[in-house]
Write a structure and sequence with these properties.
It is built from 6 helices and 2 strands, in the order H-E-H-H-H-E-H-H. The chain has 135 residues and is mainly alpha-helical. Strands 1-2 form a two-stranded parallel sheet.
């Protein structure tokens, strides 16, 4: 999730025509806390994806879009993220930063279970990585 700019942009483009699920690390539940409060609030910011997914607060402009169009936000653990990074590398030879692996982590961990016949899209983005360093 991070500050939510990408989710906000996707939400604005599709305007509810798709199911939009946010994913963020358990150690950086920025949007989760904001949605619970009903407005952007400061949240803890840690974990392995902190460099890309741990702002203190979500963006003011994107928050109403998330409220309106995000079906829900899922939390994944640092271990889930590490496992997703490793699987993307082992299977597809794609190196991702931890933040980019978070949505895939939601699928692998079972925190998100697609409906029968559902097509799932995941955005893999970001450049905060050291190639093939999964320690």
């Amino acid at each position: 999730m991070g500050g939510g700019g990408l989710l906000g942009g996707i939400a604005a483009w599709y305007e509810g025509r798709i199911r939009l699920i946010g994913v963020e690390p358990e150690a950086a539940p920025t949007l989760t806390r904001a949605l619970a409060a009903g407005h952007p609030v400061e949240a803890e910011a840690g974990g392995i994806a902190a460099d890309s997914l741990a702002p203190r607060k979500v963006g003011e402009l994107m928050f109403p879009l998330a409220q309106r169009y995000a079906e829900r936000v899922l939390l994944v653990s640092d271990e889930d993220i590490r496992t997703a990074q490793r699987r993307l590398w082992d299977t597809l030879r794609i190196v991702t930063e931890p933040g980019a692996a978070a949505p895939f982590a939601a699928l692998l961990s079972g925190r998100y279970e697609p409906r029968a016949g559902e097509r799932v899209g995941i955005v893999l983005s970001g450049g905060n990585t050291t190639a093939v360093n999964f320690t």
